[in-house]
Write a structure and sequence with these properties.
Elements lengths: L1 H35 L16 E3 L17 E3 L153 E2 L19 E2 L2 E2 L12 E2 L2
Parallel strand pairs: 1-2, 3-4, 5-6
Length: 271
């Protein structure tokens, strides 16, 4: 009987020790990252990393799920295949970093700087990217469904083949951004500035473009079924071969002599 109890206690102590090890390892990983700026493959879930300040760091395949990096500096760094789901990076500086194939669903990037970063094939569903600096970012093939990009600065960004169903670009700066073949059904572009943007072959069905500036934009072959263009500026825009465009949903939009629209659609002159 006593032997059985001793065996049970020994097993319990062994289990407790095994359970404690990951927490200790996590702190070691945190200390390593803060000291060196790198910790590839480390488990940093829930870590407090606001003090992080590094350039050319390596967090390849690291687990940063729900980590707190608000205001952190992690520039020109390797975060390929990292897990950043629901991580907090508000106002963080991540410019020039590589997030290829990273898991970033539900991430908070409000007012963060990700300029010139690579986010190819990343999962950014439900991401909060309000007022983010995404100038020149490569989002090719990324999943941005239901992402919040209100007032984002994404001039020159690449969104080719990205999934952006119901994404919110209200008041965003999208000058010269490339949305070729992107999926944008029911996206919100109200008051967005998309001068010179490319939407060739994009799915813009049900999209709202109220008071948006699409001057010089290229919408050749885009799907505009159910889209709303109210007070939309189309000076010099190319809408050749667009599909599903309903003249009744073009309300007080304007164009100029260079605007190319399907036959039968009339626009008032832009002032």
């Amino acid at each position: 009987m006593i032997a059985a109890r001793l065996a049970t206690l020994a097993a319990a102590f062994t289990l407790a020790a095994a359970t404690a090890l990951p927490a200790q390892a996590d702190q070691i990983s945190v200390d390593k990252l803060l000291a060196s700026g790198s910790c590839p493959g480390c488990d940093l879930k829930l870590a407090e990393l606001r003090a992080l300040d590094t350039d050319e760091g390596n967090l390849n395949k690291a687990n940063l799920r729900e980590a707190d990096l608000k205001g952190a500096i992690l520039t020109n760094s390797d975060l390929r295949e990292a897990d950043l789901r629901r991580a907090e990076l508000e106002r963080a500086n991540l410019s020039g970093s590589d997030f290829t194939y990273a898991k970033m669903r539900g991430i908070d990037l409000e007012k963060a700087n990700i300029a010139k970063s690579i986010l190819v094939e990343t999962d950014l569903r439900d991401a909060d990217m309000a007022e983010v600096n995404a100038t020149g970012v490569d989002f090719t093939g990324a999943d941005l469904r239901a992402a919040n990009l209100i007032r984002a600065s994404a001039a020159g960004a690449m969104f080719r083949d990205a999934k952006m169903d119901t994404a919110d670009f209200e008041r965003a700066n999208l000058e010269r951004a490339d949305f070729t073949d992107a999926r944008l059904p029911y996206a919100d572009f109200d008051r967005a500035v998309a001068i010179g943007a490319i939407f060739r072959g994009a799915d813009l069905s049900g999209a709202r473009m109220t008071s948006a500036d699409l001057s010089e934009a290229d919408l050749t072959g885009a799907n505009l079924e159910g889209a709303l263009l109210r007070h939309t500026k189309l000076a010099g825009a190319n809408l050749t071969d667009v599909r599903g465009l309903d003249p009744r949903r073009i309300i007080n939009a304007c164009g100029n002599s260079r605007t190319r629209v399907p036959e039968g659609i009339k626009l008032k002159p832009c002032k």
